[in-house]
């Protein structure tokens, strides 16, 4: 078994289980008694648990059975791990167990609670304002500042908890904007200054909200642009969105065709972003992939969906509601649809009519991300 000692942000991982209490500095004149060290054993099945529980009075342990992702343990069980001086993990839980245990020990939750975006016992639906901080031309987020955006989200979120889901208010911020001209780097994409994004991220953190940074990469690749905002993506309440509509091939320009990206390029981002989650011991991070045509994402079935990320397809088409329903049905009935979570987008000006909360809640599969532009 592997043992993790101490409740610090980076506890030491041991290859053995030499159970020694930590040294405690005490005044030499009046030594205090050493407190009993609480050990938690995390095992894979009831048989192991029964064996250890029978010895509990001898070894002072608490036994936890984890048959799946450790991050899905109940808050009460996670608290036992947090309070323990030593946690011992059965090797047959697999290699993911140790980094998932680090996530629990760091104790940085998703806004609204939990360590998994959608599978942690919390039925969660993100409702987002979409746009750019500097202009209202690219979406409703830019029609007001961050504090007013918080209030507006409270208004537009009404009804999206009608099926018992908890609403997580979200800012979806266009971090790189598709541009009409090539620019100095020739990529037809303009980056937003981090200082322009930072107030929105700080306001979201102060109000227990989530943030998604959206990339319109032009002729650049998505990974290169994502790395521009790595500082923010290392925060537990910030996720990422890739918009293939604005991903150009060489010699293409915007608005002459719909862009496209293949699974290989997306997987570069997946691997990098999942690495950040592990390095920082973060809760599961949201990765949104915009799509309203099959051609926008080629080889979609080859996209990786590792446990570090909740990968979601966002149907962001616009127009008559019946047409949007048709697009939704086409995209969600593909054989690979079950490997993704799903989201829906509302357009104030382009939809006719815009879907009501009840209509969105009636979609199959369930829409767990709803944005407004």
Explain what this protein looks like in three dimensions.
It is a single chain. This protein has 373 residues and is α/β, with parallel strands linked by helices. The chain is built from 11 helices and 16 strands. The protein has helices spanning 46-54, 56-59, 75-83, 96-106, 146-156, 194-206, 222-228, 230-233, 263-280, 321-332, 357-361, and strands at 2-5, 12-14, 39-43, 61-65, 86-89, 124-131, 166-178, 189-191, 210-215, 238-242, 261-262, 285-291, 297-298, 309-315, 341-346, 367-372. It has an 8-stranded parallel β-barrel with strand order 6-7-9-10-12-14-15-16, surrounded by 5 helices. A 5-stranded mixed β-sheet has the order 2-1-5-3-4, with helices on both faces. Strands 11-13 form a two-stranded parallel ribbon. The longest helix is centred in the C-terminal third of the chain and has 18 residues, at 263-280. The N and C termini lie far apart (51 Å). 40% of the residues are buried.
Q: Which residues form runs of ≥5 with pLDDT under 50?
A: 5-28, 33-37
CA radius of gyration is: 23 Å
Mean pLDDT: 89
The H/E string reads: EEEHHEHEHEHEEHEHHEEHEEEHEHE
Side by side, the strands of the main sheet go 6-7-9-10-12-14-15-16
Largest sheet: 8 strands, parallel, barrel
Strand content: 15-25%
Overall helicity: 25-40%
Count the helices. How many?
A: 11
Shape: globular
Gap from first CA to last CA: 51 Å
For the secondary structure, the number of strands is 16
Q: Please state the structural category.
A: alpha/beta
Quaternary structure state of the chains depicted: single chain
